[in-house]
Amino acid sequence: MTAVGAPAERREGREKVTGAARYAAEQPYPGRLFARPVPAAIARGRVTGVDVTAALAQPGVVTVLTHENAPRLAEPDDVTLAVLQSPEVPNRGWFTALVVADSPEAARAGAAAVRVTCAEEAHDVTLTAEHPRAYAPEEINGSFPGVREQGDPDGAFAGAQVRVDVGYRVPPLHNHPMEPHASTAQWDGERLTVHTSSQGTTAVRAVLGQMFGLAEDRITVVAEHVGGGFGSKGTPRPDVVLAAMAARHTGRPVTVVLPRRMLPTTVGHRAATLHRLRLGADAGGRLTSLVHEVTTYSSRIKEFVEYAGIPARVMYAAPHRRSLHRVVRLDVPTPSWMRAPGEAPGMYALESAMDELAEALGMDPVEVRIRNEPETEPDSGKPFSSRHLVECLREGARRFGWPGRDPRPRTRSAGPLLLGTGVAAATYPAQVYPSTAAARALPDGSFLVEVNAADIGTGARTVLAQIAADALGVPLERVGIRVGSSDLPAAPLAGGSSGTASWGWAVHEACVRLAAELVGRQGPLPGEGLEVHADTAGAADAESAFARHAFGAHFAEVSVDTVTGEVRVRRLLGVYAAGHILNPRTARSQFVGGMTMGLGMALTEGSTMDAAFGDFAESDLASYHVPAHADVPDIEAHWIDEDDPHLNPLGGKGIGEIGIVGTAAAIGNAVHHATGIRFRELPLTPDRVLTGLLKHPPTRL
Question: What is the Cα 248 distance to its own chain's centre?
Answer without folding.
Answer: 32
